[in-house]
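Students often ask why we bother predicting the structure of a whole assembly rather than each chain alone. The short answer is interfaces. A chain on its own may look different once its partners are present, and contacts between molecules only exist in the joint model. In this exercise we take two input lines together and write out one structure for the complete complex. Read the inputs first and try to guess which parts will touch.
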Amino acid sequence: MKVIYTNSTVNECPKEEELHIIRHTAAHIMAQAVKRLFPHAIFAYGPATDKGFYYDVDLGETKLSDNDLQAIEAEMRKIVKENIAIKPFILSREEAIALMKSHGEEYKVKHIDDLPEDAVISFYKQGEYVDMCVGPHLCYTKALKAFKITGQSGAYWKNDKNNKMLTRIKGIAFSSQKELEDYLKLLEEAEKRDHRRIGKEMGLFMFSDEASGFPFFLPKGMAIKNALIDYWRDIHIRENYIEVSTPMIMNRKLWETSGHWEHYKDNMYSTVIDEDIYCIKPMNCPGGVLVYRSQPHSYRNLPLRVGELGLVHRHELKGALHGLFRVRCFTQDDAHIFMRREQITTEIMNVVHLINEVYSKFGFKYFIELSTRPNDSMGSDEDWEAATNGLRQALEKLELPYIINEGDGAFYGPKIDFHLEDSLGRTWQCGTIQLDFQMPLNFGLEYIDEKGEKQRPIMIHRVCFGSIERFIGIITEHFAGKFPVWLAPMQVKVLLVSEKSADYGNEVYTALRKAKIRCEMDSRNEKIGYMIREAQIIDRVPYMVIIGPKEVEDGMVSIRCRDTAKTETMTLEDFLEKISNEIENRI
RNA sequence: GCUGGUGUGGCUCAGAGGUAGAGCAGCUCACUCGUAAUGAGCAGGCCGUGGGUUCGAUUCCCACCACCAGCUCCA
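Now the answer. The structure tokens for the assembled complex follow.
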């Protein structure tokens, strides 16, 4: 706790709140600087953010260069030095509108229109600059001690792409210069964990200009993908899932029935086959539904859990592409669960448990979002309510915290999303559980109940990894490329101290290969330190086997561990047993 | 798709209106070496693509493509 002086109160203030006030004030000081340098600028919205602040500014035709940003930052420092008092005042609605109109601040006027009739409207004034704002703020500009402008981008007014695009100027702010520098250092470290960088260094995957957004998996990335899939199959077999594979290309009529054509045709790749339009699947569910519908089902066999590792293609906007996190084709670790109404809660809970098990395996922290009915959706109010309640009940029974994302569900049903963080703290949706009453209706799915009557099943769509590509990106950043042995693309690297030991080295290498260890040998004429450096820093291989005259003589192997940097000498049999055990148990 | 930025050998980057450099990686040779970089040499580039300006463009201008930071979108 620290005492911080603000305009609203002088109080004991938790760190978070203190930073929020600092950052919010930084936004105002930046606006003042912008206004001094660009008098025609008018201001839309300027909040504090997680690590700093931004202000969305309408600069008319003016484009900002890097030099302009530097000038704005310099002007901010001047304002701080001037140590201007920041004073709040309150106006009635009419007065507020009049004041903002006199300043030409049309966005603020629009903002007032959105406020409730009886709202008291507060302002903050620092020198010549006045901003409509709820505050609180620092009392004097000099109290802003550590900040930096970090960039600019476009941003739509009210986040709506139909509105005008404004210029967003962004910065970071902390309570001390040291904290700011620490944060910059942290960013630098985070950059080193970037999966795009590590992917290149380790040779995991690549992209080509000829296929923007479509990842190529290189042998080492493929090894990770396969290891994940093996793990996935193991836990799904244990949970009584069965597995299918459905076609990549199917007739447009199927997508019309499912509703995808209407909702996503602009994002679906299609082709013409014998004069009919066919679509490359953007989702696996219609295929799964056709499999279900191909034979009659008894209530006795429900829930029926049908998995599919399906490669889907979606035409994402190119500006949205981002390494493996946002691609145009990806493998969903999908499953469709067909069940009776009374099985909803239990099944949802089972899936939540499974997803939690997977994320715990990797030590991820995640947050859960419950998304409700969007405007543009199909189905009856009753079904939507039942589905949403089903999801909510499961979450509440499990006592899991979640946030509600109003109107962000799929067009066919509400969903629970699991979001994971990347190295920079940006979150990405990975797991999802969607409850669907519509697809079974559209496709006329049935099962026979205990009275011999036809009933309509309910469907869950769910993924754990989400997209295996995205998940590989997330784990790459999470482990900074230092994958546990069971996932490591190269599990062991044999390093030869000198050519003299090549025969024994080959023997060891062959034995490792025979034991199905993913393994390479470095027999270059280099010093051992050189080879270790490369194996450790570039390959990030969990175990280095060092072979020199000593090992030849003793008939042993020296194992250097990546994570402890310690070396242990043992027999090859012992090492094989140790590493096989770790791989088998996925430690 | 939108705003701003970037594009030079496999990788990281420097450079300038007169047709290109460094380090690392690669290859060769010497050293035969013990836990995070041995030394020397060689080779490698249509300076993203297509137009334009110019006596001359990789450098300036335009368009496109790709990538980066955001925005929008994400079934």
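Check your guess against this: The longest strand of chain A covers residues 146-156.
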